[in-house]
Design goal:
The protein is mainly beta and about 100 residues long. It has 2 helices and 5 strands; from the N terminus they run ααβββββ. It starts with a helix and ends with a strand.
């Protein structure tokens, strides 16, 4: 294996169906959103999302935090929980989780 390949990560498309960590940036607003002083202004949130990458589209990805039902059985439909669509422009980094 060439040294260049060691640090190469797969594309998002190659990670579909696998568990990934996705680091992304999200908007944020204060819980009490009135009478905000300048020193109280919110900043965007830096989020790490762990889950199964279900879909990659040009403008977003979809990650599920849990699977239930019948994973691995094509004849039976699997259900997903804690599903989130993340805009592609908000994705800062991704990494597949491996057992190695």
């Amino acid at each position: 294996m060439d040294d260049k390949d060691v640090n190469k990560r797969p594309s998002l498309e190659d990670c579909v169906g696998n568990v990934v960590i996705v680091r992304w940036i999200d908007s944020c607003e204060p819980t009490d959103n009135s009478d905000i002083l300048l020193h109280e202004l919110p900043k965007p949130q830096d989020i790490e999302q762990y889950g199964v990458l279900l879909r990659v589209e040009p403008d977003h990805i979809v990650v599920a935090g849990a699977m239930k039902g019948n994973p691995g059985h094509k004849e039976l439909e699997t259900a997903y929980d804690y599903v989130i669509a993340i805009p592609t422009v908000a994705v800062l980094h991704w990494q597949p989780l491996t057992r190695d």
